[in-house]
Amino acid sequence: MTRTFETQRAALADVVAIPVTPFAEDGSVDPGTYRALLRRLLDGGITTLTPNGNTGEFYALTPEERRLVAELTVEEAGDGSAVLVGVGHDVPTAVASARHARELGARMVMVHQPVHPYVSQGGWVDYHRAVAEAVPELGVVPYIRNERLAGARLAELGDACPNVIGVKYAVPDAARFAAFARDAGLDRFVWVAGLAEPYAPSYFSAGATGFTSGLVNVAPSVSLNMIEALRSGDHPAAMKVWEQIRRFEELRAANGSANNVTVVKEALASLGLCRREVRPPSKPLPESERAEVAAIAAGWSA
């Protein structure tokens, strides 16, 4: 019987939250705080969670920590929410992580962009095919940051693996996204704007129906206001939210996104929700820059 993955596809056409991974004073993952942050998201109306995403410092976590984060997320989310577990690194590691996600009861995995310095387009297909074929029961979502990848390659992957159901597209070029989606099959995949709220209005105009968010950790209602406006076709309302989050996202994007996670954790720290510490190669904000982030977060929580 052919799987349709309707529930998973619907979950991707939404705010796809990327939770931070909080650390305790000794530098280890803090399970209690992580559960509390997840519960805040869920209670705030968020229903799709991506543990082990980049905002969760995927590449700075050990294999054991990545498993722990996935386990905590599935447990806290329960049956009423969708969990999209981030997997990646070498093929055996990615496959093992995907199978672990399946064992936990997660129904989708997001495959991180390959970090190998030599990525061929055919090799990109082979990499994702190996993961998708290992877990045919799960919906699979490639995370695309490679502007050279052709849409036809995604179509090729979809032909081989019908469980590839969506795409997190994170190339900062709306025109390229529009062309890529149409070359791959606009209606064939669920298109998730992988560069979050700043790019969501332009990407929705080209065919996206969901967007990822790190900001949602700080202010779930702001992200929900954005997607509600986009779903209703109210572009002025969406751009009003865009203006509201603009400075926060500019701070995250500065210097090649050096402070992408740092700014989110700083905002959470200013609200007393978790520690500000991040792991190298990220670095906490200097004291002189913390006040602006705190003021933005306070304005959203008022």
From TrEMBL:
InterPro entries registered for this protein in UniProt: Aldolase_TIM, DapA-like
The signal peptide stretch is none
Give the SMART domains listed for this entry. Answer: DHDPS (SM01130)
The positions flagged as active site in the entry are 143, 168
Pfam family of the protein (one)? DHDPS
Q: Which domain of life is it from?
A: Bacteria
In the UniProt record, does the keyword Lipid biosynthesis occur?
Answer: no
Gene Ontology molecular function: any one: 4-hydroxy-tetrahydrodipicolinate synthase activity
CDD domains, per this entry?
DHDPS-like
Bilayer-crossing residues are none
On whether Ligase is a keyword of this UniProt record, the answer is no
Q: List keywords of the entry alphabetically.
A: Lyase
Where does the chain bind pyruvate? 55
The similarity comment for this entry is: Belongs to the DapA family.
What is the protein name stated in its UniProt record?
Dihydrodipicolinate synthase
